[in-house]
Every structure is written in C-alpha cells, then in structure tokens.
Design brief:
- This protein is α+β, with helices and mostly antiparallel strands.
- A five-stranded antiparallel sheet has the order 1-10-13-12-11. A four-stranded antiparallel sheet has the order 2-9-7-4, with no helix packed on it. A four-stranded antiparallel sheet has the order 6-5-3-8, with no helix packed on it.
- Helix 1 runs antiparallel to helix 2.
- It is elongated, with a radius of gyration of 24 Å.
C-alpha cells in the first residue's frame, strides 16, 4: 500500500539572489543576457568608471608629489579609496549560476543597493505548501513524483520540510512548506515560476 499526498507547487531555482552595486552611476554595460550560465568571478555588469579613473589619475599624481615631500599618508589613503570605488563599479558573479532576470539596461542610472539583476541556481526545486495536518507525513529523503502540465512525470526527492508554526514558515497560511529537489535523470523542461 502506497500512502500518497497530492499538492500543487511552484518551480523555483534551488537558490537565488539579487545583485546590486554599492556605487551609484550609469550602467556602461550589462555583460550577460537572461538565461546565460555564468561562472564565479565572471563580469555581469559594469558601471561607467571614467570619471573615477580621471580622479584616480590626478590623485595618484598628487600622491607621488606628496611622497617626494614625505607627506604621502593621506594621499595614499585617497588613492586606495578611489581604487576600491573603481573596483565596485564592476559586478562579478559571486558563484556559478544562471541569470534569471535583468532589471536595468545599458545607459540607465543604477542607484546604490538597487537590484540590477537576479542570479540563481540552474538546478530547480518545486516548493509546495500542504495542510498542517498532512505535514507530519512528510520527511526529507522521501520520494516524490512531479506531474507536469504536459502529462509527463519527473522523479524527485523531498529536500526540505518546514513545519507549520516554525519561525520561517508562512504565518498567513499555517501550512507546511515542502521543497522537492528534482532527480537529475534527464533534462528538466521546467520553467521557473511554472506550476507543477
């Protein structure tokens, strides 16, 4: 006898993050497109740093003069600060992943801390909410089958069970949040945001 529980869920990346710049400025170049796979350290976006580079060049010249006079501490600190600002004009991928959304375009103004793009895992999960009274039946490691709208099925494994009433559970619903990790046995034709 197989005990089955049926629920609908939403396809999501296994992890995702929004990336922004600490510096404000004009976006010189978005170096990726939505759907691109990226490597850790790969350039994703560059802000126009031309004004900072001119200021850096002048400050380095002043620092060189100050060094000859034996008064280079303050000038050297100004150079280091400008180098850090120039470095922050490049947004590099913090880890390998996939570009899911781009919120801005070349030539637009990026505000400090405002998201420029969303990076996430190419691995997908399905997040399901089940009634609190069914939550106790689910355990990490249990097998699951995901039925797609086209009638095909995918094998999966329960990877996370967040009981109702836990601090991070959705307080408005009172349900148990379950995440199901897909078994990578074949290409997964699932689009993020789709129902499963």
């Amino acid at each position: 006898v197989t005990d089955a529980l049926e629920a609908s869920g939403t396809v999501e990346p296994a992890w995702k993050m929004e990336l922004s710049s600490l510096e404000g400025g004009t976006i010189a170049r978005i170096a990726v497109a939505e759907g691109d796979q990226v490597e850790a350290g790969q350039l994703l976006c560059a802000l126009d740093s031309s004004a900072l580079l001119k200021k850096l060049e002048a400050t380095e010249a002043m620092a060189a003069s100050a060094s000859l006079a034996g008064e280079d501490t303050e000038a050297r600190m100004a150079v280091e600060d400008l180098l850090a600002q120039v470095d922050r004009c490049s947004i590099d991928s913090p880890k390998a992943g996939m570009v899911y959304r781009i919120y801005a375009n070349d030539g637009e103004t990026a505000m400090p801390g405002s998201p420029i793009l969303e990076l996430g895992s190419p691995d997908k999960i399905v997040t399901v909410e089940v009634a609190a009274y069914d939550g106790h039946r689910l355990q990490v490691g249990q097998r699951a089958i995901i039925a797609l709208p086209d009638g095909s099925n995918l094998r999966a494994t329960v990877s996370h069970v967040q009981p109702a009433g836990s601090v991070s559970a959705d307080a408005s619903s009172g349900g148990t949040i379950v995440r199901v990790q897909l078994t990578p046995d074949r290409a997964i034709p699932m689009v993020v945001g789709a129902s499963a």
